[in-house]
């Protein structure tokens, strides 16, 4: 019998019987061990990748990549990273473009010296089913995916992943992610807390969300002010875009196939003035004319999203579509002809974007789970102004006092960003000069933020 079909109760019995073997590599994980990725430099840490079945009947399986901490993995926490979209790959975006140990460069991989596995055991999950190498043999499984299904599948994934890696089950666990993971992460954390009340399984110590979608209207409508304040649109267009037809109204109409003439006209003006030659994910960076990178389909419909750097997406797509790489990763393509950064087959319930998750963040804080919301301050897709106002409003609602007044924080001898903390449990921070994908565009500053988050310590006040 495959261990993957065991439920949570069976897992508890298994873990109990393992006893003293909890701190050694479980034999269940060894088939997923990566011997060496093609073109990979020599490293001293272990890597694993493979599948966890979340639904046996429909053969729904989620693909993961796991990089143990570079040093002393036994004592370091476990961090789950989720990219957004919905439909974009945590393997291709998170692991190979942002905060993982390697980045593709031609035929080889090069080390990322600011990888987050310098501080934690990093687990990247391609979710939901239909994203990246994750698959279902039942094609209907990719038709009706929504937030509820995604959260449930992610919970089952974690429960069953611990069967493969029981030595990590009692480890401090943090969940991180960006963009539409502002839906994924809080909803998963809520299910974990509910599950723990029935049977303690998750040692959840905190969540961190980068440029997240938390409240539809606030997040989307802050775009107009960001465009205007950065000189991307005119005064007259700003006035129309913030009053006559704001961005949340446009997106709402677009996904209901009922875009009004006035919204269509205003969005045309906005698109013309901002130009397709400016990266909406980082308005200060040049764009790659030859390629397109979409962190999100839902939050920016009908817009061309240029990637941050010339080669990142192309390099990743080329690398992960190599047969020798897929063999080394224990990955396979099911229902698709090639691996893509963002899924072309996923049919997500796009109107789920209108469901606020800031209230779930509030529930997590009430349960004692530390929360960090951080923003790359050059992102116009989910601008810092919306996130900051949402965090401030939530703190006020929860009656949390300011414990760290708004101030700068440092990375090295430079200002890394700004931060404010409420009640020593709810934090907001910006990463100076960072894009929507902050760990890619500002890796050093993002790593400083990550270290402080894991330790529960204030961001550096001096250089």
From TrEMBL:
Any one GO cellular component localisation term in the record: vacuole
Free-text function comment from the UniProt entry: Probable carboxypeptidase.
UniProt GO MF annotations: serine-type carboxypeptidase activity
GO biological-process terms attached to the record: proteolysis
Keyword terms: Carboxypeptidase, Disulfide bond, Glycoprotein, Hydrolase, Protease, Secreted, Signal
Natural source organism: Escallonia rubra
Protein's UniProt name: Carboxypeptidase
Family: Belongs to the peptidase S10 family.
PANTHER family for the chain: SERINE CARBOXYPEPTIDASE-LIKE 46, SERINE PROTEASE FAMILY S10 SERINE CARBOXYPEPTIDASE
Localization (cell): Secreted
EC number: 3.4.16.-
Keyword Secreted included in the entry's annotation: yes
Signal peptide: 1-26
Signal in keyword set: yes
Enzyme class: hydrolase
Gene3D superfamilies with a match to the protein in the record: 3.40.50.11320, 6.10.250.940, alpha/beta hydrolase
